[in-house]
Input
Amino acid sequence: MSTEPDPISDLEVQESTVARILELLEEAARLVAAGQPRWVDPDMFGGTVKGERMARHTLRAQARVYDALDGALATLARHHGSLVQFTDEIRALEDEMDARLTELRGTTEATL
Output
């Protein structure tokens, strides 16, 4: 009696964990994509010259944070792709090994 192992059980990584990581990466992509920097009204800082300066600095800071998040998102997207490819390769390898084992069992049983 054989039981089917989890495709990546030898690596001690559950498929549900991989699925959750992929889910989190996709959700992060949606959140970052929706968060473009918006204009900051200088009146929010009192409408003075210093207020305008503060608004400019705030907008620059938002843009830098957005750029950093965009870069992080690109990196996470690459990791997402790598993780999907890794999982697919592990499954393909396990399918190949199952086929080889089935063939070997058949050969072994035929010789007994």
In short: The mean pLDDT is 78. The two ends are 19 Å apart (CA to CA). Helices lie at 15-33, 49-111. The chain has one domain: 12-111.
